[in-house]
Fold these 4 entries.
Entry 1:
Amino acid sequence: MSATSRIDSATPERSAPAGVPHLDVDPFSTEFFEDPHRIHDVLREAGPVVWLEKWGVYGVARFAEVHAVLNDPLTFCSSRGVGLSDFAKEKPWRPQSIILEADPPAHTRTRSVLAQVLSPTAMKQVREHFTAMAAAKVDELLTRRSFDAVADLAEAYPLSVFPDAMGLKQEGRENLLPYASLVFNAFGPPNQLRQEAIERSAPHQAYVAAQCQRENLTPGGFGACIHARADAGDITAEEAPLLVRSLLSAGLDTTVNGIGAAMYCLARFPDQLALLRSDPTLARNAFEEAIRFESPVQTFFRTTTREVELAGYRIGEGEKVLMFLGAANRDPRRWENPDRYDVTRRTSGHVGFGSGIHMCVGQLVARLEGEVMLAAIARKVASIEISGPVKRRYNNTLRGLESLPITISPA
Amino acid sequence: MPSITFVHPDGRPQRIDARDGESAMQAATRHDVGGILAECGGNAMCATCHVYVDEGWLARLPAMGGDEDALLDGAAAERRANSRLSCQIKLATDLDGLVLNLPDRQL
Ligand code: HEM
Ligand code: FES
C-alpha cells in the first residue's frame, strides 16, 4: 500500500488563492468530529467558497454551492478520487472504483447496472423479509429492555439482512464493518485514522476480494445479479467483482450510521417519537429526516477538470474541492429551523445521499432498512431513554456513534 | 409562467403556478402538493413522483428515457400507458394548462 507516498499537492505550504476566505479548521480532527455543527456554521458564514489551509483544498458548505458542485460532474470530476488523494498524482490505495470514482461515459454504464440491481422493483422482492427481520429484532430487544443501540440494533439489524441480500457466505462477515470503516477513513487526509486503517487493511481486503467472485455469491442475491449482467454483456467479467465490491464498501456501514442516527434522534427528541408512534406511516420520513439532520456521510471531494468560476471565485484546474454535505443539510438559506429534527418535514432535496449522477445508488436499500426498523419501533416501543454515556466514533467520512446505551419500554 | 393542475385521487384539483424550466415535481414540492413524495429529489432514482398524464397531454410531452421507463415498472401504484415521472417533465409555457393525475400511493 502506498499510503505514505504523499506528494506536495495537498500540503499546507501550498500557495493559497487570493480573495477566498482562509480558515485553519481541520474537518478531519477529533475536535471537529465531536461538534461539527459549530464549525459548519463558521464555514458557511465565511463565504460560499473557502480555502482550508490545513490540507490545501477548497471547501463549500452552503447548500447552493454543494448542490452546484454535485451537479456539474464534468467540471468537478470523480475519476481523480472523491477523497483528498488526487489519483492523477498519487496511486489509489486500492484499485479505483469503477462507479464512485468514475466519470461519464464510463460511469453511465456501470451505474445503470447497479441502478437496476437495486431498483424499486428489486426492493419489492426483499421488502417482506426486511420487515419481518426488523419486527423480530425489536421484539428481541424488548425482552432485554436495556442495550447498546449501536451494536445491538444499528449494527445488528443491517448485519441480519444486508449480507444475506448480497448473497454472502456466513464465514468471514466480521470483516465487513472493518472494511467499510477503512474505505471511508481512506477518503480523508493522511492522518492517523487513515494511516492506521490502511496498515491493518490486508485481511479485510483479502476477504472482500474473495467475496466479490461469482463462486462465492449465492444465486438470487444482489451480487449474483451483478454477475448476471456480465453474461448479458452490459459489463465485462472483470468489472462485475468490482461492482460487487462497491456494494460491500458502501452498503453496510452507511445504513448502520443512518439507523444509528435515527435512534439517536428518537432518543433525544421524545416529542418526535410520540408523533411517529401516533402515525407509524411517518417512519420512512423520520428516517430520511435523520439522514438530513445527522448526515452519516459527511463529506466527499471532487477535482476540477478546468479553471472554473464558482460563486464569483476563480478556481484553477486540478484543485480539490471538499463538499460539506452535513453543513448543506443544515444551511438556514435552504432549510427552515435547520437544527430541529422534525419527522414531518418535507425532506426532498437534502444532499445526505448526494445529488446528480452519483447520487447514492443504494438509497432505496437504505430507506427500506430505515423505514421498516422505525415502523417496528413506532408500533412496539413506548419510550426510549438514554441510560449511559454516549460515545462518538471517529471516522474521516462517516458520522456516527460508538455506543448509545438506551432503555426502551413496550407499547 | 405555466400553470399546471394536479388532480388528487379523490378528484380534487390543485392548480399551481410553475416556473419556466422547473420540473413538474419541483413545482409540486414547492407548493407542497401532498401526493408527490420525490424522495430522490428529481434524480430519477425513486419513482415516488409518479403521475398519470391527462388524456390529450401525453403526446405533447417529450418522450421518456430508458431510466424513467425502467423505474416506472417499480412504481408503487399500477403502471398505466399514461404513467410518467413528474421529475422528468420539464415545464415551459407550451405546457401551460397541463393536467396530471396523482396515483393513490407512491410507496
Ligand atoms: C444511509 C445510508 C447511505 C448514505 C447516507 C449514503 C450516502 C451516499 C452518498 C452521499 C453518495 C454520493 C457519493 C458521491 O457523490 O461521490 C453515495 C453513493 C453511493 N452509494 Fe450510498 N449511501 C447510503 C447507503 C448505501 C447503500 C445501502 C448502498 C448499497 C447497497 C450504497 C451504495 C452506494 C454506491 C455504489 C454509490 C456510488 C454511486 C455512484 O457513484 O454513482 N449506499 N452514497
Ligand atoms: S423524484 Fe425520484 S424519480 Fe422523480
Note: The first strand of chain B starts at residue 3 and ends at 7.
Entry 2:
Amino acid sequence: MAVVKLDSGYNIGVTPSLCKFIEHPKIEPTKRLEVTQDKKLSELSIISTGGTIASRIDYRTGSVTSQFDASDILIAIPELAKVAQYHTKSLYTILSENMTPKIWQDLAKAVYEEIKRGVTGVIVTHGTDTMAYSAAALSFMIDTPVPIVFVGSQRSADRPSSDNTMNAVCAASVAKSDLGEVVVVMHATTNDDFCAIHRGTRVRKMHTSRRDAFQSIGMPPLGTVSYPSREVKLENFAVQRGIHKLALHEKLEQRCGMVQFYPGMSPDVLKGYEGYKGLVIAGTGLGHVSTTLIPGVHNLIESGTMVVMTSQCMHGRVCDRVYDTGRDLLTAGVIEGNDMLAEVALVKLMWVLGNEPNPMKARELMQTDLKGECMRRSAHGL
Amino acid sequence: MDYREMGLIAGIEIHQQLDTREKLFCHCPTTLRDTAEHSGEFFRYLRATESEMGEIDRAAQEEMKRDRKFQYYTYDTTCLVENDEEPPALLNSEALDVCLTIAKMFSMTPIPQIHTMRKLVIDGSNTSGFQRTALIAINGSLPNGGKIETICLEEEAAQRVKDDIFSLDRLGIPLIEITTSPCMHTPEEVQQVAEYMGMVLRSTGKVKRGIGTIRQDVNISIKGGARVEIKGVQELELIAEVVKREVQRQKELLTIRDELNKRKADINLNEHKDVTDLFKNTKSTILKKAKRIYAQNLKGFAGLVGREIQPDRRLGSEISDYAKVCGVGGIFHTDELPAYGITAEEVDKVRKVLNAKEVDCIVLLAGSSDKQATCALNQVFNRAKSALKGIPEETRKMLEEGSTAYMRPLPGAARMYPETDVLPVLINDARWKGVKVPELLQIKAERFLKEYGIERNYAGQLASSEKLPLFERAIKEGIKPKLAAFTILSTSTELRREGIEIRNISDDAYLTVWHSVEKGKVAKEGIPDLLRLVASGSTVETAIQNLGPSISREEVESIVKKIISERSEFIQQRGKAALGPLMGVVMAEVRGSVDGKVVSEILKRELEKSLAAKTP
Ligand SMILES: [Zn+2]
C-alpha cells in the first residue's frame, strides 16, 4: 500500500496503481534556531547513544525526528537552560537492544574525555531496555569524581505527556549535584512528581512500559529529585563528588555469557559455553541448578571457565552452603555471586576477566564490592 | 428571516459514542463510572510547544505556555493504556465494523488501508496529549441531496470532573465522527439532517444512548460573516435555535461594525492607562483585590459594547470571553457602569485620565498579577479591533437555551502525525462486501405499522426505543406484537412514573412474563403487578405465585354462573347492557388473574344463555 497524507492531516493507505507521479515535493530547509546558553552556569556534557531525549514533529509531513544538537534539545526542553549550559556529542544512534560491550567501551572513553576536559557532570541519553547494563559497565570502567547520569524516556519524546522532559531536567540537576558515581535517573512514580536516583550497579528495569519502570534492587535509591523544584536530595550512603580520582579501565573480556536455569534444563545447554572465559548462572532460590547439571558445570570450570552463581529471585543473597546441591556446586568450583544482580554479575565478570589476569585474584574480585554492586550486609528487605 | 438570502451556509459534525464491548485501543469495558468510585489518582504535566498554541496573541500565549498540571482518576475498569503507561492494543475491530456499517448506510467509499493518527489535544482530556483518530470512509450522501464528507473513528476523551481533574472511565470509548459538507441553508434543514443522521446511527443498534453520548458541532457562516464552529450541542431539539441565534449574532455584529465605521471608531493599544491607584478605596470587591487594573479606551464604541447581539449576550460579553482566556474573571465597560460597586465618580475619574469623550467606551480589566492584566489587556484590544473588521473566526461553546460563548480561535490545520504503535488495517473487498446494512428505524416503524397493525405513533416510538431489541426478540419467540409493544411503551412508562425501578427488569423477565400470558398462566391485566414485584427483586415465577394461583376456565365459568344467578333481577332489568357492570364484578372476583377477554367472552355467552332462558 502507498501511504498518502491528505490535506486534513490524515494518512490513508491506497493501492500504488491508483497513484500518479506528479513531482517530488520541495524539501523546505528546517529553520535552525540558535539558542544562546547562559555561560555563567556549570557546563554539562550530554552524550547520546540513541535514546531519544528530545524530538521534533513536522506536522506537514507527520515525520518525527530525534534531536541531538544542544540547540535543538534546548528548544524542545527549555527548562534545561535554567539548570546548566551544555556540550553535546552524538556518539551512536542505535536502539538500546543493539548495544554491545564494544560500544560500552567507546562510551566509557567518550565520557572519560569529557570529564577530563573539566565538565561538572555527564548525562548519557540511552534507550531504556539495556540502560542498566550500560550503567553497570561504566560503573566498573570509570572511576569518576563527578556524576555520570544515565537517562531515557519510557514514553516517546514526541508526545506532550512524555516523561522525557522531567527525566532530562532531573538528570541535569543530578549531574551538577554533589554526587560522585554512575547513576540512572528516571521517574520514581507514575506521577510527574519526582525522579529517583539509582546506583548504576543496583538498578533494574522492572516494567516494560511504565514511567517508574526503573527500581533499585536490594537497596533504597541514592536520592530523589523533586519536580518542578529540581531539588536534589542525596542519602548519606551516596558517593560524594570528588571522592574518586578520574581513571579509565576500559578493558572487557567479551567471551562471557549468562544462562537462566529452569527445571528440566538439558546439560547440553552448558556445552554451548565451552571455550567461554566466564559464565553467570541465574539459578533458582539460594543459587541452585539441578543435580544433573553439576557435572557439566564442573567440566566448564575444569576447562577454564569462571562460573558465577546468582539468583533469579533478584532480591536476596546467594548461599550455596545450605543444601546439598549448593555444596556440590561449591565443590565444583562455582563462585557465589552474593547479592549481585545476574546481569551486573555478567558485566562485572567481563570487566574483572579483562583487567585481572590472575584467576585467583579474579575470583576474589568477583566477591569483593567494587562499585556498590555487592553488599556485605543484606540490610534492605523486599 | 430569509436565510437563503442571507447566505447561510451550515455543516454539521456528529460525534457519537459506540456501544462496543471494549474500548478502541485497550480491552477495558466501555462503562461510565461514578467518580466517587475511583480507585486511584495520578497527575501529569502536558507540554505544549509554540506551534501548538493556536493563534492567540503573544501575551496570552506566554500566560498559557506554562506546563499545565492535570490530575486523573482511575478505576478498576481502566488500565495502563488509559494512564498512558502502556502502548495501545490493536484497533478494536467491533468498533471498525460499526463504522463500516454506517459508512455503507450513507453509500460511502471505505479507505483501502486505515491508518491511525495522533491528533494533538493538550487541554488535559487525553492523558497522552493526543487523541487517536483514523479516517474510515469518504464521500457519502444524504437523502436531501447533501453530502457526507468523512467518517472517522476516534477515541473519546476523558471526562472533566472539575478544573484540571479528569476521569479516565470515558477515555478510549470508541467515537464515530461524521462530517457533512457545508450543504445546509436554513436552521430547519440543519435540524432535519441532524435528526436523520441520528436515526441512521441508532439503526445499527450499536451506539450508546443517553445524555452526553452524542454531541453535534455546527459550522455556520453568513454572507459577509465568518466561519464559526459551535461545539457540543447535546440536545438535538436545540440545533435549529442555535443556528438562528448564531445568524442573529453575526448579523448584529455586522451592524455594529458598520456603525463603528460610520463613527470612524478606532482603537489604539497606547490609549490605555494603569488605573490601579484610582481604585484603592473602591467598593468593588473585584477591583479592590486586583494587583493591577488597566483601563482601555475604545474610541467611538459607546453604546455598542453594551448592545445585545444574542439573547443575554453583548459585544461586551464577547470581549470579556477573550479576556477570560488569561484567567481574569471578566471585564467592566462604561456602557454598563456605574454598577457592581463602581461609582459614577470613579467612572468620571477614569474617563478624565483617558481623556475619553462621550462616544468612547472604556473597558476596565483587573488582574491578579501584572502579567495576567497585560495578557487580558492584549486580548481586549484584539477582540475590539476585530469588531471594526466584522466577525472573528472562532470555536464557540453552547450555553443553555442556544446562545454561545467564545472558546478559542478556530483550529488551524489539525496537528497530526502517525500513531506508530497501531498497525494499519486493510479493508479489502471481502470485508466491505460482508458489511450488512441494518433496516433503517423509520422503515422498521413502517413495517411495524403494516405487518403488526401497531399504531403509527407507537410504531415510531418503538423503533427508536432502547427496548427495540427486546421487541424484536419477543416477535421472534412468538409473542403477540401488540402485547409486547403495549408493555414496552405504555405499561413500563406508567410504572416508571410511579417511581418503579424498571431498569431492574431484565429482557428475560419481560419475555417470561409474556410467555406466561400467552400460555394463559397469567392474565394480561396482571402484568403491571407482576412487573412491580420483579422490579423490586422477585423472580417472575415467585411473582406469579405471590399474585395468587391462576384460575382455570372452568373456575371462571362457575364464578360467572354464580354471579349471574345472584343478580338475575338486575339482568332482567338491564338486558344485554348488564354486561359492562357485571364485567367489573367478575374481574374484581378473579383479581386480575384472568385475561379480560376470556372473562368477557364467557360472561357474554352465559349472559345470553341466561337472557334466552328467561325470555318466554
Ligand atoms: Zn484500558
Note: Residues B 23, 26, 28, 78-79, 81-82 surround zinc ion (CB under 6 Å).
Entry 3:
Amino acid sequence: MRMCVDMKKCQYHGQCVIAAPDLFSFAEDGSLKWVETIDDSLRQQAEDAADVCPEQAITLEG
Amino acid sequence: MTMTLATRVEDLPFLDVKDPAFSIRSPEVADAREQSWCARTPYGIAVLRYDEVQKLMRDPRLRQGSYAWPAMNDATGKFADWWSRMLLSQEGSDHARLRRLANPAFSPKLVTSLQPAFAVLANELIDTFAKKDSCEFMADFAEPYATRVICTLLGLPHEVWRELADIAADMGLALGVTFKQDIPRIDAATQKLFDYAANLIADRRARDLGTDFLSLLIKTNQEDQQALSDQEMVDMVVLAIFGGIDTTRNQLGLAIDMFLQHPAQWALLAAQPELGRAAVEEVMRVRPTITWVTREAVTDFSYEGIDIAKGTTLHLFSQAACSDPRAFPDAGFDITAERKPHFGFGGGAHHCLGHFIARGDMTEALAILARRLKNMRLGGEPKWLPDSGNTGAISLPIAFDPEV
Ligand code: HEM
Ligand code: HEM
Ligand code: SF4
C-alpha cells in the first residue's frame, strides 16, 4: 500500500505522529517525514493516521 | 551581516485582556496587530498575527496552557483533580496514549453515520417554533441541539438532555470568575457527572456492544486495562459531555449572529445547502467561540526578536489571527470564498478531538435552519458573554417569516 500526504493541506498538527508513530515523525527542522510504502503489518496504523488527520491530508492507495 | 532588531518587551503594545469590557474584535487589537506580531497582557504575551499563531500553536517548545487553570485560582478538590487528569492537561507520551485511545470513538466514519440523526434532530427542534414568527435561538435551538447531539453520541435517551445541560453548566462555573466561592457547588456537580458517566458505562456494558462511542471505549478497556483504565474511561465520557456541549451551543449562536448581519449570505445558504460546511468554516474564522487558546513555554527561547522565558503564558488570539489582513486581504464575510485554515479548533497535538462531530452537526444545523427560517432578523436585545476568552450569546432573540 502507498501513502501520500498532501502538503498543501497539511497544517503540521502531528496527529498522524500520535496515531502512527512507526510511520510518521517530525525531523529536527520541523518538517514531516513519513513512510511511503506501507507493509501489511502497519496497514492499521496507516488507516488510523488517515482517519485522524484534521485536514484529511493523508491518502492511501492499494 | 544581518542586523537583528531586538524588541524590548516593554515596548510592545499592551492589551488588558482581564478587563471584562475588553473586546478581541476592538480597533485596539487591530492597531496592536499592525504595530507588532505580539502584545503584552496581564498574563503574559498575546500573539496577534496569522503566521505566528499558526506556527506557535504547534511549536514543541510550548505546552497547552489550560492545565494551570485551577491552580492559578488556588482551587483544589474533585474538579481540580479531574482537570489535571484530562486530555487537555496531559502532554507527551501520556497525552499521545489517551489521544490514540479516544481517536476511534471520534472518527469521521462514526460522524458520517450520525449525520441523518443530526438532521432529524434539527428539524424536530425547528418544528417547535417554525410556525410562530420568532424564537430565543439559544434556549430554543442551540442548547437543546448541542446537548442532544451528545446524547446521540453517547446513546442516551433524549429526555435526559436538560439534566445533562444543567450538570455541565454547574461544572462550567469552574471556568468563570466565581470559581473559588463556587467550589462546593462545582464539586457536587463534578461528583454527579462522574456518577452519571459511571452509570452510563455500566448500562452499556450490560447490553451487546456495538460500534457506538461507549462500546468502543468499553471494548478497549476490556481488552487491556493498561491501555485504558476504568478511571480513564469515565474521564473520557465526562470530557465528551463537558467539552462538547457549551462550545457547540456558543458556536451556533455566533453563526446566527454573523448571518443576522449578512442576510444575503443566509439566503445564499438557503438556496445552496451544500455550502453548509463552508459556512461553518467561514463563521469560525471570523467569529470563533474560543477566541484564544493558551500555551506555556516549557523552555527559554527567542522568537522573532522577543525573548520568551520558560513559564511564560502565550495567548494565541485565533480571532485576531484569522482577521489578519496579511493572511486574508479580502476579509469580508463570504461563505463562497477560498480561505486559509482557521484556528477555531486550536491546533497541534491538542487540536480539538471533537471537531469532526462539531463540524458535522453544525453543518447540518445551519443548512436546515437557513432553508426553514426565511428572512431571519434580530427579534430583540441579545445578551452576550464578554467578547474574549470563550465567548457567545447568553440569549439571542430572532424573528423570521412563519412557516405555513
Ligand atoms: C464548535 C464546537 C467546538 C469548538 C469550537 C471546540 C474547540 C476546541 C479547542 C479550541 C480546543 C483546544 C485546542 C488547542 O489548545 O489547540 C479543543 C480541544 C478539545 N475538544 Fe473541542 N471544540 C468543540 C467541540 C467539541 C466536541 C463536540 C467535543 C467532544 C465531543 C470536543 C472535545 C475536545 C477535547 C477532548 C479536546 C482536548 C483535546 C486534546 O487535548 O488532545 N470538542 N476544542
Ligand atoms: C473537556 C472539556 C473542555 C475542553 C477541552 C475545553 C477547552 C478549552 C480551551 C481550549 C480553552 C481555551 C483557553 C486555553 O487554551 O487556555 C478553554 C477556555 C475556557 N473554557 Fe473550556 N473546555 C472544556 C470545558 C469547558 C466547559 C464545560 C466550560 C463552561 C461551561 C468551559 C468554559 C471555558 C471558559 C470560560 C474558558 C475561558 C477561560 C479564559 O479565557 O480565561 N470549558 N476551554
Ligand atoms: S495529522 Fe495531517 S495535518 Fe497534521 S501533520 Fe499529520 S498529515 Fe499534517
Note: Chain B has one domain: 9-399.
Entry 4:
Amino acid sequence: MTKFLSFISRTYVTLVFCIVFMPMAIILVISFSADSYLSFPPSGWSLKWYGTVLGNTSFMQGFRNSAIIAVIVAALSLALGLPAAYALVRLDFPGRALIRSLVIAPLVLPAMMLGLGILMVFTPAGLVATYPGLVLAHLVMTLPFSIRILQTSLSNLGTDVDEAAMTLGARPLQVFMQITLPRLTPGVIASSAIALILSFDEIVLSLFIVGPRLQTLPVALYRYVDERTDPMVAVLAVLMIALSLAIVLVVERSVGFAKAFGR
Amino acid sequence: MSLASTPAHIRIDKLTFDYGGERPAVDTLSFDIAKGEFIGLLGPSGCGKSTTLRMVAGLLAPTSGQIIMGGEDIVSRPPWERNLGLVFQSYALFPHMTVAQNVAFGLRLRKVGKEESAARVAEALRAVRLEGFGNRRPAELSGGQQQRVAIARAIVIEPEILLLDEPLSNLDARLRDEMRFEIRDIQSRTGITTLFVTHDQQEALTMCDRIAVMNGGKLEQIGTPVEIYDKPATPFVAGFIGRANSVPATLSLGTGGPRLDHEGQALPAPDLQELPADAGDGAKLAAMVRPHAIQLSRPDGDGLTARVNRSVFVGSVIEVELELAGGQKLVAELRPGSEEAQLAQPGADVALTWRTTDMRIFAA
Ligand SMILES: Nc1ncnc2c1ncn2[C@@H]1O[C@H](COP(=O)(O)OP(=O)(O)OP(=O)(O)O)[C@@H](O)[C@H]1O
Ligand SMILES: [Mg+2]
C-alpha cells in the first residue's frame, strides 16, 4: 500500500515537473536548431541563431536598455522599499493598517489598467519612451514586492534584539545600521533579486510607454514574434531564462531562498 | 527625601501605563529600590511586569508617573542614555557577531579603548563562566550559554540597574535551578542593582532580597521573601505565594476579646492588632492559614471539629484534606510518622487548631 502511494506520488511529481519544464526544454532544443523557422524537432543542429541574436542591434540595444533599467529599478526598489517597510512594521502612525493593505494594490490590479493609467500620466509629463519613465513604471510593479518581502523579514526579526542594542547605548541610526540591517541581509538580497528579475522580464507596462528610440528586450522580442518566428526567439528565451536562473542561484548560494523570504 | 534606612537608588513613583484597554496595564505603581538590591517583580501573567520593566528601560513612555534615578526623573531620557542592562527571555543576542563582539558592543559605543575593552569583556565572560567562548557565534551555544552571554553583555557596561525579564523561563528545569544561583551569585559579586521579573514564586522566593507582588497592574505588597510568605498583606498575596487555606468567619467583639466564628464554631482567637481597621462587630472576614500551621488533635480536643476526607503521602509531608462541619475544606500538611499523622485516617473525626500568630485576617 505504502509502495503504491509512493509510486503514485512519484508519478504525480514527475508529471507536474514535466508540465512546468516541458516548454523550457522544447525552447532549449529549438534554440540549437539549424532550420530557419520554428519546428520541433529541428531537422539539423547549429549555433548560428545564437550568433544572429548577438549580432542583432535591435535585440542588443533592448538587452542593454533592460539591463540598465533593471539595475536602477532594483536599487531604487530597495532604497524606497526599505524605509517604507520599516515604517509599516516598526512605526506607529495613523492610517498604517490602510497603507499596509494599499501597498499591494498594484499586484491585484490588472497590469493593462495600470499601464493605461501610467500612459495617461506619463504622456503629458513627457516621460514616455524615456529611462526615468520606464524606471518609474517598473517601480510600480516591483515596489509592492520589495516592500512585502522586506516587511516580512523585518517583522520576523522581532524587536528584542534592537531594543537590547538600544539599552546598551545605541542610538536609533546606530541600531539600524549595526544591528537591524545586517540581520536583514537575506531579505535585502531577496527583494533586490525579485525586483531585478521582475523589471528585466516586464512587458505589459513597458508596451504602453516604450517608443522607437527606447525599447526593452521583452518588448523587442514581442514585436519580433509578431512579424515572424524563427529560432532566434527561442535563443532569446533561453538567454532570458538563463539570466533569471543565474540571479536565483546567486540568491540561493548567498542566503538560501527559504531564509531570504523569512522562514 | 526617603526616610528609609537605605536611600533609594531608583524610585518608581505612581508609575502608570495605559495601552487603552479596560484598565491601565500598570496602575500607580510605587516602590523604591536600594543600591545593590535584588528586587523581584512577581505576579501572574498579564499583571504588568514586563510593561513596568519596559518603562524603566525607556522602551515605553509612561502614561504618567516618575522614575527617579540618582535624584533625577529619567522618564524623558531615551533608553540609550539610561545606562542600563536588559536581559530578555529570548536572549536577544546579536546573531551576526561573535560572543566577544556581543559583549563588547556596549563598550564600543562608549568609546572604551581596545585594550580595556578586551580586558573587561574577558572579565565579564569569566564572571558568567564562559571563558574561551569569545570566538563562537551565538548560534553555536546552548540556551543556558546564550543566556549567560546576554548577562555578560548587560553587566560589562556596569549599568545603573540590571533588568531581567523572565530570563530563566526558556531553560529546562535543571538548568533553571543552576542559573538561579548563578545569576544571584553574579549579582552579589558585582553589586549591580537588579530588577528581576518572574511569574515563578519559587524563583522569586529563593533569589530576591525583596519581592514586589503585582496583580492587575497594581502593587499588592513589597517585602522580603519571609515577610511576603509569613505576613501576606492581601488575600491575593496569601493565595499566590505558597498555599493557603481561607476560612470565612464572622467577627464578634464581645467583652472577652475579639472572636471569629465559622458556622457556629469558634476559630482560634484572633489578635486585635491583626484585624482589618474597619472591621466592626458582625463583620464578614476571611481567616488565612498555611497548611503546615494546622495542628490536629483527638476529636474531644480544643478547636474546630472536622472530618478527614483524604490523606496522601507526598514524600516530605502528608497532605490531609479536612472538611469542617459546614462543608468548608482545608488542607493540612503533617509530618510523616507524627502523632497527628496517626489521627489523620480517612473518615476519622479530629479537632484542629492553629496558633494566633499563624493566622492572617482579611476583609472577605
Ligand atoms: N502592546 C500591547 N497592546 C495592548 N495591550 C498590551 C500590550 N502589551 C501588553 N498588553 C496588556 O497589558 C497587560 C500587561 O502586560 P505585560 O506584558 O506587562 O504582562 P506581564 O506581567 O509581563 O505578563 P507575562 O508574565 O505573561 O509576561 C496585559 O493585560 C496585556 O494584555
Ligand atoms: Mg512579561
Note: The pocket of adenosine-5'-triphosphate (ligand 1) is lined by residues B 19, 21, 25, 43, 45-51, 199 (CB under 6 Å).
